[in-house]
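= Paired protein data =
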Amino acid sequence: MDYKMFKAINQLSGRCLLIDFLMILISNRIRYVFIFVLIYMWFRNNSNKIASRNAVISAGITLVMNLLIKLFYYKPRPFIKRRVGILIPSKMDSSFPSKHTLLMFAVSTSIFLYERFIGSILWVLSILTGFSRIWVGHHYPSDIIGSAFIGSITSILYDKTARCVNYISRQ
């Protein structure tokens, strides 16, 4: 099922130069939009500064989780096992989790907990990032869904923990 979904999406790549360019752009450069939003929020007000800080810490936690998962679990990327359309070069490391998707969802979820509108826009961009990673031939849909889940849950748990510690420290 995972491969069938991957194939349904990935077989569309290479057919339209404009869409391929857009998917490569999203896959490789969307992180700069996220960085800009984090910087903007840092200087906006105290609540947004907290959201921005939490997003960076959650992203750091997901990077460590990514490293640990890849250390103990290996899932071959789609282009290693099969002949698929690949639009940009990739590492030969494990397909799961998708670092791009982990980071985007960690940041967008952290922002969403404080600023629903901006967080919703970032979530859409996160979904597009995950989709683009399938389009360019680097990840299976299950890699993207799992990474989105891990990134989001990490941010929620970190936010709840930080609020609890903050509440306790004020008592």
